[in-house]
Write a structure and sequence with these properties.
The complex is a heterotrimer of chains A (291), B (294) and C (321).
Chain A lengths: L5 E12 L2 H5 L4 E13 L4 E5 L6 H9 L6 E6 L2 E2 H4 L7 H4 E4 L3 H4 L6 H12 L3 H14 L16 H14 L4 E5 L7 H18 L2 E6 L2 H7 L2 E6 L2 E7 H6 L4 H9 L12 H6 L14
Parallel strand pairs in A: 3-8, 3-9, 6-7, 7-8
Antiparallel strand pairs in A: 1-2, 1-4, 4-5, 9-10
Chain B lengths: L1 H9 L2 H18 L1 H4 L31 H37 L1 H15 L3 H12 L4 E3 L2 E3 L1 H29 L2 H8 L4 H37 L11 H7 L3 H4 L3 H27 L4 H4 L4
Helix pairs in contact in B: 2-4, 2-12, 4-5, 4-7, 4-9, 4-12, 5-7, 6-7, 7-9, 8-9, 9-10, 9-12, 10-12
Chain C lengths: L5 E11 L5 E12 L4 E5 L6 H8 L7 E10 L2 E2 L5 H7 L4 E4 L3 H4 L6 H12 L4 H14 L5 H4 L9 H13 L5 E5 L7 H18 L2 E6 L2 H5 L4 E6 L2 E7 H6 L4 H8 L49 E3 L2 E3 L6
Parallel strand pairs in C: 3-8, 3-9, 6-7, 7-8
Antiparallel strand pairs in C: 1-2, 1-4, 4-5, 9-10, 10-12, 11-12
Helix pairs in contact in C: 4-5, 5-7, 7-8
The chains are: A alpha/beta (291), B mainly alpha (294), C alpha/beta (321).
């Protein structure tokens, strides 16, 4: 029996607020982004982390990937404390956790071609120069792109293509854990489905553990096996994805579910046709007190 | 480089004009000994204060020296101070700006407050004061003797550095927070690799624009310092000393003495400003896509 | 059919491209809005949905400009009236709220001042009366202690509250048409739901006609009577919301609905639309969706199908479903 690949033990994270002068005068306050969060992610899990702005879900992603250190508590990667691993910045542990970013236009260096971006990534993994070109082609194929895209610059790509390159770059390190922070929220709806299907296929085929951070419950339902609902820096509910979405226990989870647009089923104004059919317009009074 | 060729195709008329003026002045400075019709130092008492004519296109000064030749040779002093000061200022300022933006925390605060301090010095006044204190003769630094021009270049360069530091800091701060920098960090790239490969290249365009604009200011500062007699020493020609010598001529009617060096300064400043604006447009990697954004 | 409040006829918007030519982004758009009707305009980036409505408001900035068509509001062609007349109509008869509430408010002025300015520009009322109208508008959009909040600055409000302030500003002069351009997209989901509720409620209470621009068909379907689907600068389908939701005729509408997962039904791979939305200036001669359309046949790529009406449901497709 192996332990969790990633676990957070009573993690807190806060940021100082106020300028230098405030800090010198001891007038600073701290913004608490995560408050005593514990979470175990098992190998091969696809975990959806949902919440709204200020819920701490992106802070959690940053801690899990080693971009930041917790103020207190511990992040463990395969049982080893992240703070110890981080002493050796470029250590082999770096490869094990990678990240896909939200905004595909800021995720790629605007002055580097796709091939150069992936090539430099492979170089850091220690792939010898002679093998890089073929590996770049393999990576591009993996994310559903052709080798002709190699010489292009990011602004010559569509948003969907850029997001696939961001995914290819993360996969180039052969990670075990992939953290995707709102990877499709900036994409057109017709492209979201492509990227979600790709993520779903790759996590299965490569046996990845995926933390999918999103505000979109319906996407999480499609992709994830587990769901973690966060609010104001704390986990309010977690469990198997379908169970939680069908029988939410926390009022906040219920509010999130109620807020998902439902098309005709969620009509707020009785249209003549629906009124005739006797449909009952949903008022959603239940979420008015939720923010 | 096909990128450069495409960029040149996009250059508009004002960009071409700026590039043309700057090119012309660089050419004049480099090839002054070949193209100048007379020796800029040769006195000719017979032919003093001659109005522009066929033999002296821009006339002669109080010593009978050819004004055109002196302007061509004067371009050397002006450009070397302008460009030299910008290179020194950029070296100091860009390093400081990138360090502060990338490092963050206390280092950021300290560096940027020092920059604020230096920036609060009134540029021209201090340059004149310091050269005045050090004197116009060569300055011994250990075994080396620094000529007056080098002093001015270093001094103006130091005074330019906060401008570069602030421009660099503003862009680098944004670039350093971009996800592609995070991604590189997550791959285990060293700080040096990240700064040299990701941060610096994406900060260059405003730095270069600032540089071209500051060359123009450097030229004006050189002229000002020379004007008050602390820069290039007579009989060596410089636009500033030429203007200074022309002071008396303003009332006695030898208009060509102040007008032509003055025009040379204005034209150079305009040239570098136009070039700076054009370079800003060229260096945007998205300049082609920009018109198609809906 | 009642006479239209707003009718857009053959609207075209173009951009001057780098080589001096014109690139069309809105290519002949027709639709109308009846008094009190709520119409959703749905499309992805590059569909021309926002540009069309900015053209209606005459708010296009360079390099975009209207290259053809008419926009008739109550018998008056908005594209033909002078700027003075347009300023009078804007805010009084027709108002617009935008996606980003942050940049739509002046951070240096109190919201009371900003709303009373709008009121003062259109109605000849005293300052005291203008403030009363402003407070009433704030109250109507659900801001508690409205009179007291008039002295607040935009930064004292949350994103959702700022959007409410903007909506209050838009309805303060009782316009007959409110255009909302993705008013909830930048907001959190629970806040989004409440903003959409608010717009539906205002429409009911004030008898407003609403044009709701969104990329989200499911969201739009909750509050509108009719949906106009745009793609590549053209209207591809326009019909009653029930028809669009239950029996879409254009393949794009069907796929757009299918590629967004819902909270019910089986879990499995999503229906994806292959390819990417068209880029400006690179549109096929025929149907703009033809390169991505699974049903594309012979004439699709070369010839644009006409927008054919059938009992209030218009479709531009060679092979409607």
């Amino acid at each position: 029996m192996t332990g969790p690949i990633l676990s957070l033990r009573s993690v807190c994270k806060s940021f100082p607020q106020g300028g230098l002068l405030d800090r010198l005068l001891g007038r600073d306050s701290r913004l608490v982004a995560l408050d005593d969060v514990s979470l175990d992610v098992m190998r091969g899990d696809v975990v959806g982390i949902v919440g709204e702005s200020g819920s701490g879900k992106s802070t959690l992603a940053g801690l899990a990937v080693g971009l930041a250190r917790p103020t207190s508590g511990e992040v463990l990667l395969d049982g080893q404390p992240m703070t110890e691993l981080m002493r050796n910045h470029a250590g082999p542990w770096r490869r094990r956790v990678q990240m896909v970013f939200q905004d595909s236009s800021s995720a790629l260096n605007p002055r580097k071609s796709v091939a150069r971006c992936l090539g430099e990534t492979l170089a850091l993994r220690g792939v010898p120069k002679v093998r890089r070109e073929s590996e770049i082609t393999e990576l591009l194929t993996l994310v559903g792109l052709g080798p002709e895209i190699g010489p292009r610059l990011p602004h010559e790509l569509s948003g969907g293509q850029r997001q696939r390159i961001g995914l290819a770059r993360a996969l180039a390190m052969k990670p075990e854990v992939l953290i995707a922070d709102e990877p499709v929220s900036a994409l057109d709806v017709s492209l979201q489905a492509q990227v979600i299907n790709l993520l779903s296929r790759l996590t299965r085929e490569l046996g990845l553990t995926l933390l999918f951070i999103s505000h979109d419950l319906a996407l999480v339902r499609t992709l994830c096996s587990r769901i973690v609902v966060m609010r104001k820096g704390a986990i309010v509910e977690q469990g198997p994805c379908l169970d939680v979405l069908e029988r939410p226990r926390h009022p906040y989870t219920q509010a999130l579910i109620a807020a998902v647009p439902k098309g005709l089923a969620g009509r707020r104004t009785p249209s003549p046709a629906l009124a005739d059919a006797g449909a009952d317009p949903e008022t959603r009074e239940d979420i008015h007190g939720a923010a | 480089m096909s990128g450069l060729r495409n960029a040149l195709d996009d250059l508009d008329w004002s960009g071409w004009l700026g590039a043309g003026i700057v090119g012309l002045i660089l050419f004049a400075a480099v090839f002054a000994p070949l193209i100048a019709p007379y020796d800029p130092l040769a006195l000719d008492i017979e032919d003093r204060l001659a109005a522009p004519d066929g033999s002296h296109w821009l006339g002669t000064d109080q010593g009978g020296r050819d004004v055109l030749s002196r302007i061509l040779f004067g371009a050397r002093a002006s450009l070397s101070v302008g460009i030299g000061a910008v290179l020194i200022g950029a070296a100091i300022g860009v390093s400081a700006g990138i360090f502060a933006a990338y490092k963050g925390g206390l280092g950021e605060q300290v560096v940027m407050r020092v920059v604020d301090g230096v920036a609060s010095i009134p540029l021209l006044v201090w340059a004149i004061a310091i050269v005045g204190i050090l004197g116009v003769g060569p300055l011994p630094v250990g075994p080396l003797l620094l000529p007056n021009e080098v002093k001015i270049v270093v001094l103006v360069g130091c005074l330019f550095s906060p401008v570069f530091a602030r421009v660099t800091y503003a862009v680098a701060k944004r670039v350093a927070g971009a996800d592609y920098v995070r991604a590189r960090f997550l791959q285990g790239a060293s700080h040096w690799q990240i700064v040299a490969g990701e941060v610096l290249p994406n900060c260059l365009s405003p730095i270069i624009v600032q540089g071209t604009l500051l060359v123009a200011i450097g030229i004006v500062i050189e002229a000002s310092i020379s004007f008050v007699g602390l820069g290039v020493q007579p009989p060596q020609p410089s636009w500033g000393t030429m203007l200074s010598d022309a002071r008396s001529a303003i009332y006695s009617g030898e208009w060509w003495l102040p007008v032509f060096p003055g025009l040379a300064i204005s034209l150079t400043v305009i040239g570098f400003n136009l070039l700076g604006d054009a370079v800003r447009d060229l260096l945007d990697p998205r300049s082609e896509a920009r018109t198609l954004v809906a | 059919m009642s006479p239209a409040l707003l009718s857009v006829e053959g609207l075209r918007v173009g951009f001057r491209s780098a080589d001096g030519g014109m690139v069309e982004a809105v290519r002949g758009v027709d639709f109308s809005v009846a008094p009190g009707e709520a119409v959703g305009i749905v499309g992805e980036s590059g569909s021309g949905k926002s540009l069309s409505m900015l053209a209606v408001m005459r708010l296009l900035g360079a390099p975009a400009r209207v290259t053809g068509g008419r926009v008739i509001l109550d018998g008056e062609d908005l594209l033909a009236v002078d700027e003075k007349r347009m300023r009078a109509l804007r805010g009084r008869d027709i108002a617009m709220v935008f996606q980003d509430p942050q940049s739509s408010l002046n951070p240096a002025l109190t919201i009371g001042r900003q709303i009373t300015d709008v009121v003062g520009a259109h109605r000849n009322v005293s300052t005291r009366e203008a403030r009363r109208i402003a407070a009433e508008a704030l109250e109507r959009v659900g801001i508690r202690d409205a009179a007291g909040r008039l002295a607040s600055y935009p930064h004292e409000f949350s994103g959702g509250m700022r959007q409410r302030v903007l909506i209050a500003m838009a309805i303060a002069c009782r316009p007959r048409l409110l255009i909302a351009d993705e008013p909830s997209t930048a907001l959190d989901v629970t806040v989004q739901a409440r903003i959409v509720d608010l717009i539906a409620e205002l429409r009911r209470e004030l008898g407003l006609a609403v044009v709701f621009i969104s990329h989200n068909l499911q969201l739009v379907a909750e509050i509108v009577d009719r949906v106009v689907v745009m793609y590549g600068g053209k209207v591809v389908e326009d019909g009653p919301v029930e028809a669009i939701e239950l029996a879409p005729r254009h393949p794009y509408t069907g796929l757009l609905k299918a590629c967004v997962p819902s909270l019910s039904g089986p879990v499995g791979p999503l229906t994806a639309i292959e390819g990417a939305p068209p880029r400006l200036g690179r549109l096929p001669a025929g149907c703009p969706f033809s390169p991505r359309c699974p049903d594309a046949v012979e004439p699709c790529a070369s010839e644009m199908p006409a927008l054919v009406a059938d009992a209030g449901h218009r479709t531009a497709c060679w092979r409607p479903r």
